[in-house]
Amino acid sequence: MRYLVYSLLLVGLFLQNTFAQVIKPISWESSILEENLEVGDTATLSFRAEIDENWYLYSSDFDPDLGPMLTEFDFEEDDSYQLVDSIIPINPSKGYDEIWEGDYTYFKGKGEFQQKVIIKEIPFKIETSNSYQVCSDVDGKCIPFSDDFSFGEKTKSATSSSESDQKEKEEASTDKSEKEGKKKLIDLKQKDSNSPYSLLAFMLVAFLAGLAALLTPCVFPMIPMTVTFFTGKAKNRAGAIRQAVIYGLSIIIIYVVAGTIIAVINGPEFANWLSTHWIPNVFFFLVFFIFALSFLGLFEINLPSSFVNRVDAKADKGGLGGVFFMAFTLVLVSFSCTGPIVGSILVESAGGMVIKPLLGMFAFSLAFAIPFTLFAIFPEWLNSLPKSGGWLNSVKVVLGFLELALGLKFLSIADQVYHWGILDRDIYLVLWIVIFAMLGLYLLGKLRLPGDSPIEKLSVGRLMLSLVTFSFVLYMIPGLFGAPLKALSGYLPPMSSHDFDLPTLIRENSGGSGAISSEDQLCEEPKYGDMLHFPHGIKGYFDYEQALDCAKEQGKPIFVDFTGHGCVNCREMEARVWSDPKVLSRLKNDYVMLALYVDEKTELPENDWYTSEYDGKVKKSIGKQNADFQITRFNNNAQPYYVLLDTNGELLIEPIAYERSISKFVDFLDEGKEKFEAKNKP
């Protein structure tokens, strides 16, 4: 099994490196510089590039035979305009290439190209595409790209004037209900649906997400179920391989068909329901609890005899019914935990898209199916090994303990979303400490369960596993007193649910100069503050309009945290990144904090309901409105997702998502603050 884990890690590293090569390190904006254009006027088309750090863009004014790929623009002919000379790069830098032995020009950070055209008709239509090459300073890799641009049926002056008037009206208006109804999109410099990145890159991202999903707490425990189901099912090696392949194909077919249907009909909202609603989460908790008891030896789980007889009757044909049933069970259970990941793929269905979600779901399920297909073949190899007493039963028991512990995650999600208060962080930790302590005793042979053989000598392997288990138990014990336990931050309930949080008590009762009072951070009592909380003593809001009003009053930018009760990566970011003093001081002092929970089920008063422009559905709860806000404003459905806004709700810099580099997160916050101060200079 460890060899398969090593293989998965190597594949993940390979795909991570591949993914790094296909992410687009550049974005483009285009505009017309002149206003009030008339027939016969000369217009200047501007193409501006934002280039990521450690990357540079080759320009268009050096010897094309030198070697690097020039930046070229190809204009489609049209009677409404006429080109004047060729495109001009604006103030590029110069360099010398030792390999090609020649001078070249390039842009770093920002770049601009301009093209003069004569307007021959009003309205006019100008369409062009470019091809170019960006290279990395770090590892020397160079990647070619292309983009499309269109200057549509109206002149820039008319469009700009209309947008300017509209913006002034919106800023002058204080009617909050009118603002909520508009849900105007913010320009994020994002490409259209055909060019955020190539379909191949999108599939690679989805494939990598499928590998990552294998490490979620509701997918890993399905491995022993797979092993148990396929052990002894085939009469020979060929039969085992055939069943395994059918099993893998069934997973892919189920995911692609179900995911595509959801994308077309429901979009990401259904995935959110499945991953956060109490009904599926409690159901899956009970499923894992029952399977854990079965692995521990309380009883055997058998399919109904009539069903078994029908499956046995099809054994010679490959047992398709049983194999498909097992694949369907895997997809159903795992979909709850992978809902946020799948939701990011399904959000591509906005606007009626089908092909892209279909390809994304195929790539995701392919990565998801490959390891389980290997495990489906693996039982035959297990059966060929020499039997050594009850070692195989010991494996089942160990996995049973793990199922018992990991299954609590489902109940925890429902508990957090619905604020039941039955599985707070300290209770969760107590249960894990007891479960893993009993697992350690079992590995030492101090506990015997049904099916176990007597242990005459303790093997080195069991001794080492018990040492690891008891070390893990000791690691968790300080968490009962408020230790952050960063390694488990994604699996544990938030610190706000802890009854005895010693660091918070010290912080709140200390009179040190470093303490920041609520009055210093908040303009008014936050809505929903009785049930929603920030970590690390951060004070903030959970309502967009309230945060916007406070930002205007304090003259600070807004830090928007799109998060969720069941978001594993959100808890990891809070524990590993937000807790750093450099990050924490900036969050507390430089920004008005806003956390928008996309899975909060609290229903709002009827006069706050509205019909979404995105899917035409009425949004009644806090979570549904926050999720709709994220999708419509930022074309994104992943959590965590961090956005920096000014006091008018306008974007300051490009948002970021899961970023565990503290230095990069600090740079993100500092850049946002600098942009805000630059915009608000007197």
TrEMBL record:
The record, for SUPFAM superfamilies, names: Thioredoxin-like
* Pfam family of the protein (one): DsbD_N
| Keywords noted in UniProt | Cytochrome c-type biogenesis, Membrane, Transmembrane, Transmembrane helix
Protein name (database record): Cytochrome c biogenesis protein CcdA
- Transmembrane in keyword set: yes
Transmembrane region(s): 199-223, 244-266, 278-299, 320-346, 358-378, 390-407, 427-444, 465-485
An example of a Gene Ontology cellular component annotation for this protein is:
membrane
Start-end of Basic and acidic residues biased regions: 164-178
Cytochrome C biogenesis protein transmembrane domain: residues covered: 202-411
Give yes or no: UniProt keyword Oxidoreductase: no
Task: Give the membrane topology, semicolon-separated if more than one.
Answer: Multi-pass membrane protein
